TrEMBL record:
It is a multi-pass membrane protein. This is Cobalamin biosynthesis protein. It comes from Colwellia maritima. The chain crosses the membrane at residues 12-32, 61-82, 162-183, 209-228, 249-268, 301-324. Keywords: Cell membrane, Cobalamin biosynthesis, Membrane, Transmembrane, Transmembrane helix. The lineage of its organism: Bacteria, Pseudomonadati, Pseudomonadota, Gammaproteobacteria, Alteromonadales.
Length: 327
């Protein structure tokens, strides 16, 4: 029997990652579930308690930071104590990573939207997309739905999958689950909503800071995929976003790779305030608007990056084990 503990730390972590990806893909084929739904409910109730409208913007921002600390610190301590007590380390790390990784139902959702748009069932497409995005889907045309779906595929993959996996590989399962919980706080307290404009500032900044490196790695691989498509021009157009603390670099490179326009105006509604249009950054403005088939093309590019990343990590692990065996 193979002794997994004899593997290098990198190979051991990679084995857990690949195992969880396979298990989660298999489970998601039969049922799409969200292990953190109860945590989302908790975040909503917590904000109702501490995010008081009568407080000043500074007080609400501080309240948001305190809410993050009093939520994450006890959870991190409890999970750390369990990690010490658990004897089967492989299963414990796999369980934490399984919870930390986001839903694998993006492809299924995108396929339903593509089919609905192809058959002119825009209402079905809007209802299918709505749980996956913060923006209002009702005013969207077929072009808007295609654009929103492409952006959703990229951002969800980056935040729920790619960044979580890299944090797990580099730091460990406890950091990965804490980041995923922080992401859920950011989604629940998104500063694009008037109610959370100040309360959600720290969760937004922390998420942007933590995912900066994974997003840049993903973006550089996107740039490599553009070789043969005027990669120098694509890099020149995307370079201004490289050192900024958001996902614009990835959105820009995807738009340029697909030769379509992304970004622009979005409408948000938090039910307690009137709908508000926010003008987001536009990417590749001179290109055509996205079409339904671009959703499928975007999915292939995004998953191509994932496969390239996994291939690179497997190759690196094999090299480490080979050197260790012959040293």
């Amino acid at each position: 029997m193979t002794d997994f503990t004899a593997l290098s730390p990198f190979s051991y972590q990679l084995l857990i990652l690949l195992t969880v990806i396979l298990v989660k893909a298999l489970v998601s084929h039969f049922i799409i579930h969200e292990p953190l739904r109860a945590f989302q409910f908790y975040c909503d109730k917590l904000s109702n308690k501490v995010n008081k409208s009568q407080n000043s913007p500074k007080q609400r921002a501080i309240a948001g930071l305190v809410a993050i600390v009093i939520t994450l610190v006890p959870i991190a301590i409890i999970l750390w104590m369990f990690e010490i007590l658990v004897e089967v380390n492989f299963l414990w790390q796999a369980l934490l990573l399984y919870v930390a990784l986001g839903s694998f139902g993006i492809k299924q959702t995108s396929n339903i939207i593509v089919q609905a748009l192809t058959t002119k069932q825009n209402h079905l497409a809007k209802q299918t997309l709505k749980p996956w995005v913060l923006r209002e889907t009702e005013p969207l045309s077929s072009v808007g739905l295609s654009k929103a779906t492409i952006e959703m595929q990229l951002l969800r993959t980056l935040q729920h999958g790619y960044t979580v996996a890299l944090i797990f590989m580099l730091v460990g399962p406890l950091s990965a689950i804490c980041f995923r919980l922080l992401i859920e706080m950011h989604y629940c307290w998104n500063s694009k909503l008037i109610k959370y404009r100040h309360f959600g500032l720290y969760s937004k900044h922390l998420v942007n800071l933590i995912q900066w490196l994974p997003v840049r790695i993903f973006s550089l691989l996107l740039l490599l995929m553009s070789i043969g498509k005027n990669a120098t021009l694509i890099w020149r157009l995307s370079r201004p976003y490289f050192f900024k603390l958001h996902n614009s670099i990835a959105l820009s490179l995807l738009a340029l790779n697909l030769a379509i326009k992304l970004g622009g105006v979005a409408m948000y509604n938090d039910l307690q305030h009137p709908k508000e249009k926010l003008r987001k950054i536009s990417f590749n403005d001179l290109a055509r608007q996205p079409q339904t088939n671009d959703i499928i093309r975007a999915h292939k590019i995004i998953h191509g990056i994932i496969y390239i990343s996994l291939f690179f990590m497997i190759s690196l692990a094999a090299a480490i084990e080979f050197i260790a065996a012959n040293s």
